[in-house]
Design brief:
By secondary structure, the protein is α/β, with parallel strands linked by helices. The chain is 44% helix and 21% strand. It is elongated, with a radius of gyration of 19 Å. The two termini are 33 Å apart.
Length: 229
């Protein structure tokens, strides 16, 4: 069951969207302002976000931009009364995947929801397996093998690989690693990230001192460079 987060400050609209999506079989989460919506998006990890633009505390453009800054790739469908071309461009540039202007038909909304979920589920499935030279990594089953020889990776190392794979070649900051892999309750340092990357390189790279796949982006963090990139 797909989980959809609605971030909308108008209670009647939020209730109507919740009822509509629940009737379609989705599990619905909701937030009434941008700040709580961003926190729910990071904590709950929904499959899709329906995002209003004009909200208190944090508007939809800023919220979406912050998600992308944190390398969060959840699909975002913006729902707004701001229908000018300039507003649409701003929303898409902020990282939204689609943009629907109010008022809209329920049929069109549901069609766009289905399309976004299909697209991102295909992408997620494609990212379940990685090949690094002779090494095959199954992120879903958390296994790694070189030929027939098992490679032992920790749960955090698998989580770091998944995060870099989902970033699709873009660098992942050390802060993003700490937020996504260790969580807010832990108190690691950015050096913790560097140590785990060093461990991954020792296990996966032919020459850890000259990494082929786990690249350092100086001043930012790390990126995963797959074959063909």
């Amino acid at each position: 069951m797909s989980r959809i987060l609605i971030i909308e400050d108008e209670a009647p609209m939020r209730t109507a969207l919740t009822d509509l999506l629940t009737a379609e079989g989705y599990r619905v989460l909701a937030a009434a302002d941008g700040e709580s919506g961003l926190q729910r998006a990071l904590d709950e990890k929904p499959d899709l976000i329906l995002l209003d633009v004009m909200m208190p505390k944090l508007d939809g453009f800023a919220l979406c931009a912050e998600l992308r800054r944190l390398a969060n790739t959840v699909p975002v469908l913006m729902l707004t009364a701001k229908g000018r071309i300039e507003d649409r461009v701003t929303g898409l540039d902020a990282g939204a995947d689609d943009y629907l202007v109010k008022p809209f038909s329920t049929e069109e909304l549901l069609a766009r929801v289905r399309a976004l979920l299909r697209r991102f589920q295909r992408q997620a499935k494609a990212m379940e397996k990685l090949r690094l030279g002779e090494i095959e990594i199954d992120l879903a089953r958390q296994t790694a093998v070189r030929g027939k020889k098992q490679i032992y990776l920790t749960a955090k190392e698998f989580a770091m690989l998944r995060l870099m794979a989902e970033a699709e070649g873009e660098p992942v900051t050390r802060e993003r690693f700490l937020d996504a892999v260790w969580g807010y309750a832990a108190f690691p340092t950015t050096r913790t990230v560097d140590n785990h990357i060093a461990s991954l390189r020792a296990k996966l790279e032919p020459d850890p001192d000259e990494p082929r796949w786990l690249k350092t982006v100086h001043g930012v963090g790390y990126r995963l460079e797959l074959e063909g990139e």
